[in-house]
Design brief:
Strand content: 15-25%
Largest sheet: 8 strands, mixed
CATH class: Alpha Beta
Helix content: 25-40%
Number of helices: 8
CATH topology: TIM Barrel
Number of strands: 8
Strand order of the largest sheet: 1-2-3-4-5-6-7-8
Bound molecules: iron/sulfur cluster
């Protein structure tokens, strides 16, 4: 990696079968986020990353060497990884080790996304779509000011390039109803894959979310059925 300034990595999960379907992967967690989604489960990483111990990248590199041939790739999560200044350097280093890369992103940095795709540094992108592409709705669901044009640019970019991707929405009952799910899916019409994620009220950034009752599994399945005609593949995760 570029040795000038190396920003801290804040977490490392050596093994996951859940974060990248069909792959054995590890996860690197990067600090900070430009959203403050009330239902976020990474509140320390988002709000107080300085309170979390740094993970030395030298340790991660030793792990890659030791596990060569046993892991398929690395998931880059957060927080919002596209805010991380060393992201292209980090991904180049991982790709040079022969590992695949999956990026988890909220889609607010289409220019960074484009640079990473152009440089062939990504093998899979999972992009959150938090709400219909309406400034006020997006602001409500993310508790942040959002430029929805950037979100739209990231959607268009992923759908127009030769890259594997999924769009995904955490379906939180107090924010998203049937009409919202239809509005979201119409904004990604023709997409390869759309995942509806079950909302988990435990350990959220905004503690008042603990009182929000998740949709029943059958209700989520009905949403998936409703929106599936607009995309190539759609299913529910987390039920
Ligand atoms: S859910 Fe994702 S986008 Fe929202 S605050 Fe947490 S890390 Fe950021």
């Amino acid at each position: 990696m570029n040795q000038e300034i190396i920003h801290p990595i804040k977490g490392f999960n050596p093994h996951t079968f859940l974060d990248w379907e069909g792959k054995i992967a590890c996860v690197i967690y990067l600090p900070g986020c430009n959203f403050k989604c009330p239902f976020c489960h990474s509140s320390e990483l988002v709000i107080n990353p300085e309170t979390i111990a740094n993970v030395d990248y030298a340790y991660i590199k030793d792990f890659f060497k030791e596990k060569k041939g046993w892991i398929d790739g690395v998931v880059i999560g957060g927080g919002e990884p596209t805010l991380y200044k060393n992201l292209p350097d980090l991904l180049r280093d991982i790709k040079n080790k022969g590992l695949l890369v999956k990026l988890d992103t909220n889609g607010t940095n289409p220019m960074v996304l484009k640079q990473l795709i152009d440089e062939k540094l990504l093998d899979y992108v999972a992009m959150d779509i938090k709400a219909p592409l309406d400034t006020q709705l997006y602001a409500k669901v993310t508790a942040s000011n959002v430029d929805v044009i950037s979100i739209k640019q990231s959607i268009d970019l992923l759908m127009s390039r030769d890259i594997d991707y999924e769009f995904r929405t955490t379906v939180v009952p107090c924010f998203l109803q049937k009409k919202d799910m239809l509005a979201i899916v119409k904004a990604i019409k023709g997409a390869k894959k759309y995942i509806l994620q079950q909302f988990d009220p435990k350990d959220t950034l905004d503690k008042s979310m603990a009182t929000v009752k998740p949709y029943l599994p059958d209700e989520l399945k009905q949403f998936a059925q409703l929106v599936s005609e607009f995309v190539k593949q759609c299913y529910v995760r987390g039920i």
